[in-house]
């Protein structure tokens, strides 16, 4: 008998095949296209099928933002996920971006169970059950739900109050023997990725515990491992365990096939395979589109609402160049952050390579497609030594290759981390990429004076960075002196209401050498 395990992960609310840069797109991803492929795979399967939604569905797209922040109604989004026919879902880290209460409301609207074994509230699972047994054509399949335990490094306490995040490896080690007593097949559905090279086992990132997929694959008794979080496109055997990670925004469906043979007491896995099926050429499923049609139209209208005007050029023509030479868009975002928190130092990133900055008229569409994360702001009291250490870490973003400045490999692969390179306003600084890592900040001044290592400064960052997100060890919640709990997209809109005409200016306070 063949058991097929289908999965999506990190769809991030991209239900319709658009990135919302403009109306009426048909791009090669989306939940609606994934649904079509899932139906095709179910029809072609010669045995039972189990379908998993592997987390990070509640945040990411403008539609998800509209449902959460404008309407405060998760069902406007989850109605589409209910049309897919999932057997179960997993909690992702971005599910907490709108707070624990909103997540609980969203889970209550789903027509499939959500599993989470390692996030606890006073010792008990906070969201659904730790595992569930599914009987498929006489085969008992146990699924253990796990989520990256690194969430407290990103989320403010007001979003995760009363919760304990246990190690996925420790929790899996506890449950696996019990699950094999209860079921024929044991599957781990883990909203997390891989911390090591899948072939050599060598670390591919700092071993912080954010990703522990490789460790999970080494545990005895894992018959299949579904992963996500890193937005990688992976399928194959890792330590003999079939595993998938289907990318981002529903671009692929993960397929694990287990060939089962009967035993005296049930079934066992004889061999296994894994693959990804791209969704780009599929037609979007009409039932999924219908479920969010009214919300999609309302979102598009909301996105087109004008907020302000630009005098000058605030567009981004080349994202790599925009990280080397300050652009008016980056300076504008930092000005918004400083105005919202009453500081004169702030840092922000160009989060991806899709943002194009602002044209002559700024709409909400421009705001949410450029500032893509639901960040709030925090003010940190940092020493000059902290600031220099943060800038040195930012300087690691670049590498010289054949005389050209390029993005350092670990920031580009396996998951692009453009959001981990910050550009600051209120400081004058210079990077020299020809120098060794840790010695690249060759000039650093504040109001014309050198930044002193033992002097303290108030610096505004987004909430992710303020908590140490991106492994910025010099930042942590103990250094936060105040916060602004409004979402940055709201703060940008508020700023434009107060300043309906903004000047596109860049004072070029930072320099990256050698100049290209």
From TrEMBL:
Listed GO MF terms: 2',3'-cyclic-nucleotide 2'-phosphodiesterase activity; 3'-nucleotidase activity; metal ion binding; nucleotide binding
Record flagged with keyword Lipid metabolism: no
Catalytic function, reaction form: a ribonucleoside 3'-phosphate + H2O = a ribonucleoside + phosphate; a nucleoside 2',3'-cyclic phosphate + H2O = a nucleoside 3'-phosphate + H(+)
SUPFAM superfamilies, A to Z: 5'-nucleotidase (syn. UDP-sugar hydrolase), C-terminal domain (SSF55816), Metallo-dependent phosphatases (SSF56300)
The UniProt record lists the keyword Ion transport: no
PROSITE patterns in the record: 5_NUCLEOTIDASE_2
Family per similarity comment: Belongs to the 5'-nucleotidase family.
UniProt protein name: 5-nucleotidase 2,3-cyclic phosphodiesterase related esterase
